[in-house]
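Sample entry (385 residues):
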Amino acid sequence: MEGLTEEEQAIVETVRDFVDRAVKPVVQELDHTNTYPEALIEQMKQLGIFGLAIPEPWGEVRVSAPCYALVTEELARGWMSLAGAMGGHTVVAKLILDHGTQEQKDTYLPRMATGELRATMALTEPGGGSDLQAMRTTATRAGDEYVVNGGKTWITNARTSGLVALLCKTDPAAVPAHSGISILLVEKGPGFTVSRDLPKLGYKGVESCELSFDDYRTPTSALLGDHEGRGFSQMMRGLEIGRIQVASRALGVGRAALEDALRYAQERESFGKPIWKHQSIGNYLADMATKLIAARQLVLYAARRFEAGERADMEAGMAKLFASETAMQIALDAIRIHGGYGYSTEFDVERYFRDAPLMIVGEGTNEIQRNVIARQLVSRNSVAP
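Predicted structure, serialized as tokens:
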């Protein structure tokens, strides 16, 4: 764990032990029954996992972005849903730290650090997807309140979060459109409904929901920061750590799949020898390990840039793109190595195969990531006409 302090190394090792001791023995049952992991979340609170991005005086231990990435990888190695349970929470903490008023920091961050208050973000809408500027959720100012109307979808932890960073239009007529977008820090109340849970291929246990706002009222002090119209740029910066986190989830899934495949390939024999000695299986393992290590280096590279305060949207996009595609391929290859058993729900590799696609389409699809990367490549290497 090069580059981490001794304290950070100890934190990663503690989370690894938690996964091996508490998560792996119960994950199959929780996943197959789609059960919310309340007991595991409570243990994560006790370990301080929800406060890892929150510094003093609001939190106890704020770790570096590379450490946070490795903690996320360990959680996802046990169950990707656990890493998802703290992903949006971290983005909201980062938004409040960087852009919130002193009152917002003092009100929310201490309880977020302990996990007493859990947070999520609400960006995606049914008709918009990745086109955030086309959102239709509005917040109209009425005296000392905002009146919010609209809907969001695919919101993780919507039922269990007490705070939502809501991306909405405070000036629908603004040109360009992003200049009329703001973030409101909202809590549940009349007019704010979690309308339904969405059925999913994977990512079980943790809920993904639709939200409805029908003349929901919140005080103007809910505006993140002091000025309207800055929400789009605020969220784009927050999504840098969000995409690093999603890339780290992919690492965890890919690593778990590789570890299971490697173990099985040594135990399973065919034609008188362990199957890893057959060239085709050995080649799978070699490619899986090579791609996983390359993906981890890309994730840590993005995390180090983010930690240094440098712009990291291109690097985070690259990490998310490569790590998620790598996880999907490793999960498929793990099924190939397991043969028929890989298709059985008695083995974990089928879960990895169901979980891996989320990182390809979540936090901005990989097609969007390629657009981001291309724009930044040209922007950073522009050629004068």
